[in-house]
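Let us work through a complete example step by step.
Step 1: write down the sequence.
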Amino acid sequence: MLNISRKIKAIGASGLLLFAVLAGTAAESVQAAQAGVGAQSSQSEVFRIMALGDSITAGYEPGMTDVNVKPYGYAERLLEQSWYHGRSELINYGILGLTTAGLRNYTEAIKQGTPATPEGIQAGLRDPRITQFAALTPQIKAELAEADLVTVTIGGNDVSSLFLQAKELGEAEFQSQLEQRLADYSANLSAVLTNIHAINPQADIIVADQYQPAPKFAVKESYTQLMDAAARLTEAADSVVAALNAAGTPVKVAHVASRFAGVEVSLTHIFGEGAADFHPTQQGYETIARVFSEVQWGQYSVPASVAVFPAPASMSIVVKGVELNTPNKPILKNGQNFLALKDVLNAVGATGKWDNKTSSATITYGGRTVVITIGSKLMKVNGVNTAIDTPAFLQKVGKEDKTYLPLAALATGLGFDVNYSSHLRTAFINP
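Step 2: predict the structure and record it as tokens.
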């Protein structure tokens, strides 16, 4: 997108932040280099995720206007989960303030493959990227056609104003308006999912239902009424998906609402009188990601770097979906993460030979031969010299000297795909 690499395209936030995130992959590359990871080859198939929807998809949290803050929502977490299964990338087109009608218009424009206008998508959208997102519809159509998984969160903006007015409306008026909004939601959602399937019939499509975000103490007597309304939205989503499946359009529902029920105070931000501004907390976004991951892969994995308290000093390493468990802990040196050569070679199935005379290791994997020499800022890849920022070194572990290599060199030399999550303090390595 906009000359951004296809490595990771995670776009979404608020205000000034959104402009910074449009160039987010550059920052991601810097972060990866600092972590000692990087490089990707076309050796393996890439699993492509596209996230469509509203501010929940964008990963927005109230007050997120700092240009130095990058969104870390459910979609970014879902990308991390996908790294457990192989090479993956994310493209996020979450739009702040989007309704189901707006997403219907947007997916219609994407299906047509012609540039749209912001007004043609939805009048009054405040997302500063909307002009660019509208103009990119031909490119988005091509990206959507290549996606393996499409996730959708939409509908909160359809009913949020009604939820906020619940205390002022009589029961009959509330139910009347709810019925109309449910009808519109169902019609629009059906059209959105049909459009996505028409563009890419092979993609897995998962849509989330709508949770009720306000805790009981904030809405008091309206809580039961709002919970009943949220249940109706879940029923509507289930009904739409059941009808589409019956008609040959396979879609799944991520039942997020049930995970928020009764624990809204820990999973949502509550701002203003009567919960006037509410979005998921980081725990809430993790909950949403967990549901999507369980629907897609049957599980949600948590690395040791975050699964235990206090967190271990070293980072976690996940190789081909399996967390590396070794007494040879990763070492941080000069801002780079180093791993013991033997452990990684065993994990990925590569072969290696050590030469005491030259203090070098010859590593073979997938048609590549890499020679790395202790202390040298050059390595040979199939006989060609390649620069290394920080050289390999020997580290005393017990009575043995272990060869430690920077992840970036390993990825570059052997053609692995290596991604580092600073939030999880985990490197994911996929051949």
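Step 3: interpret the result. Residues 171-199 form the longest helix (29 residues).
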